[in-house]
Amino acid sequence: SPMQKKIYNYFVTS
Amino acid sequence: MLEGKFEEASLLKKVVESIKDSVQLCNFVCSEHGITVQAVDDSRVLLVSLLIGNEVFSDYRCDRNITLGVDLKSFAKIIRCGGNDDYLTLIAEDSPDSVTLVFEDKNSDRISEYSLKLMEIDNEFLKIDDMDYDSVIKMPSIDFQKICRDLSTLSESLQILITKDSIKFMAEGETGNGSVILKPRTDIDKPEQSITVKLNNAVNSTFGLKYIADIVKGTSLSNQIVIKISNRTPALFEYKLQSGYLRFYLAPKFED
């Protein structure tokens, strides 16, 4: 089944 | 000092009910522009971004930025004590350890006042740049909710395929498969029933239905949902408010 990505893979902490 | 009066308590009730199952502890950041919230769910897959613009309020003042660290489960319990049609005023001092909620019944002289203790919540703030999306669809929020609820009976994943003339929602499970295809349509008499597709590139993305089940709790906030999707990046699900929005950014699932 497909892997669930995390939101932190895309957005960086400012 | 913060003093924000809602014409009807129902708006804040709906907002809190829409996000309380996704995130529990969050900072309500109050500024002259209104109130914003950004929070990520415990599994770090879903990001909630809320703006209640100052124009939503019938009266609003906030001289300097004030952060209200709120436990949404407790907040939801208090906010349910007020009537939907009541005026609701939020009041907080400059460095508050509590926020006061005043409900005023419009049909009597009854005034109910509650205070909620605030918390120190240490959350990171993620920088979200405006992105160009492969596809933007707009459709009745209630239809999206029903499609997702129906397909969640079959699978844990929802596949969304968008081409220039159709939107296809698909779920494949052990017991069977399901799909719903929508075509763009313009309803002049009932614009809220319209379905639009703006396409730069065809989209084929998969999302966890467990998260989408939380997202569709925002349905009561707006007749329409805007969904912005790019292949292999988080999708944006947006319910527009009269001034502001409730947005959910959901990271996709995909095969490695």
Structural topology:
The complex is a heterodimer of chains A (14) and B (256).
Chain A: E1 3-4, E2 12-13
Chain B: E1 2-6, H1 9-19, E2 25-31, E3 34-40, E4 46-53, E5 59-62, E6 66-71, H2 72-79, E7 87-92, E8 98-104, E9 111-117, E10 126-127, E11 135-140, H3 141-151, E12 157-163, E13 166-172, E14 177-182, E15 196-199, E16 203-208, H4 209-215, E17 224-229, E18 235-240, E19 244-250, E20 253-254
Antiparallel strand pairs in B: 1-5, 1-7, 2-3, 2-6, 3-4, 4-19, 7-8, 8-9, 11-15, 11-17, 12-13, 12-16, 13-14, 17-18, 18-19
Helix pairs in contact in B: 1-2
Mean pLDDT of chain B: 96
State the order of secondary-structure elements of chain B, H for helix, E for strand.
EHEEEEEHEEEEEHEEEEEHEEEE
Would you report the number of β strands of chain B? 20
Termini distance of chain A? Answer: 33 Å
Along the chain, the helix and strand elements of chain A come as EE
* Biggest β-sheet: strands ordered side by side in the sheet of chain B: 6-2-3-4-19-18-17-11-15
Structural class category of chain A: mainly beta
Beta-strand fraction estimate of chain B: over 45%
Give a short account of the largest sheet of chain A.
none
**What's the helix count of chain B?**
4
Q: Largest chain-chain contact?
A: A-B, 14 and 25 residues
Label the overall shape of chain B. Answer: globular
Largest sheet of chain B: 9 strands, antiparallel
Low-confidence stretches of chain A: none
Proportion in helices of chain B:
10-25%
Q: Please, what is the oligomeric state?
A: heterodimer
Q: Give the averaged pLDDT of chain A, no decimals.
A: 85
Rg of Cα set of chain A: 10 Å
> Roughly what fraction of the amino acids of chain A lie in strands?
25-35%
